Records
---
Amino acid sequence: MPADFASPLPETIEQTVALLEGEGYVAGRALATVVFLALRMKRPLFLEGEAGVGKTEIAKVLSRALGRDLIRLQCYEGLDVSTAVYEWNYPAQMLDIRLSEASGETDRERLEAGLFSERHLIRRPVLQALSPSLGKGPPVFLIDELDRADEAFEAYLLEVLSDFQVTIPELGTIRADAPPIVIITTNRTREVHDALKRRCLYHWVDYPAAAVELEIVRRKVPGCRVRLSREIVAYVQGLRKLDLFKNPGVAETIDWATALTELDRVALDPETVSDTIGTLLKYQDDIARIAGSEGAKLLSDVRAALAAEA
Ligand SMILES: Nc1ncnc2c1ncn2[C@@H]1O[C@H](COP(=O)(O)OP(=O)(O)OP(=O)(O)O)[C@@H](O)[C@H]1O
Ligand SMILES: [Mg+2]
């Protein structure tokens, strides 16, 4: 099948697991189920969870696996309609006015219709997500880190996600012929309104279980020795139980495994951990804690547990 043609949606949860795995994403049953349902029911998927647990990655992987465009709206404080939805191309409009003046055009209505036509419309992510995507099927629309946007913008999105349409006063209503595959992520720095959540399927993306995390390392860092990757995963899982200021996410586990592989390490030892801890922990207080007896105990526990298993 040509790469620019959309792949069919998965028919079962097993197919969804395989679809995600085909692009290197290891999904547990619960996540695969909610992804499957969101695709079948054509409902937005609302993913909440700690940093670095693979929320954003789901949208990227889905777009690749389904052969759809990925349209990303990165949210931040102060995000407004002109950046997120559409904007008029003001310089081009000015030029049009000048040219009309020069040619002696005086019909005001005709001039205005020309100025506010599709030709001068700059489509930002929301509008792009609602526009027809020729031959490809609806795109994947990632609304990333929605908790960072203001509540006013959230209210606006609520409207968009209800009807999949946007009204532009000068132009009329633009409506998607088929709803995009919407993935919304948040880190829960603030609660998102119930009204918006109600339109979505919800899933809390947790830190993966050890077996899943081991599989992720195997896929993402194929050069990492088996024994080392087991130690890495056990150590990271142990760290997450220590009530640190900032727990390492999956992204950090992958980084650590990559770093240790680059350094040709085959096993964890106190010196190696201390030399590379910056790939895993990003706060000095956490690093100081791990440099002390707590870190030493965790490492010896991990090695004892793995030795017992072997
Ligand atoms: N289940 C998984 N399978 C494969 N890779 C994963 C998985 N979970 C996370 N990753 C990897 O971890 C990295 C971080 O994931 P991602 O950026 O999606 O996290 P996030 O939850 O969006 O974090 P943040 O809240 O910081 O944006 C990605 O590079 C991704 O490849
Ligand atoms: Mg993210």
---
Amino acid sequence: MHSLLKFNSKEYYKLNKERLNNNNKKYYRELRKEIIELLGRKCKRCGINDQRVLTIDHIFGGGKKEFDNSESSWKYYKYIKEIINNQKLDPPFQLLCHNCNHIKRIEIDSQIRKIRKRLKDGD
Ligand SMILES: [Zn+2]
């Protein structure tokens, strides 16, 4: 009985894989749109509002790690949306365009290098 159920759910998944994936993609796109709305619809730094280049940036870092731990991208977006709704006044996320996101990363890297150097030099 048990193995039969398992087989059936596997078969079901196989048969419906494409449909399920499409549902996930649709849900992902809707969630992304909602999060962009919640975060003000434009890049926090340069103000560009072209949604194709906007990324959801974790202000204090750690986004990549959290994303890796998340089973799928829509689940991660769902999690982000919940956090934003719980911390409306000061959400730990912001919208950045790809360029500003890249610049932010370079700035953080250079700050880290400076701090490491200072610690090494014993200041
Ligand atoms: Zn920007």
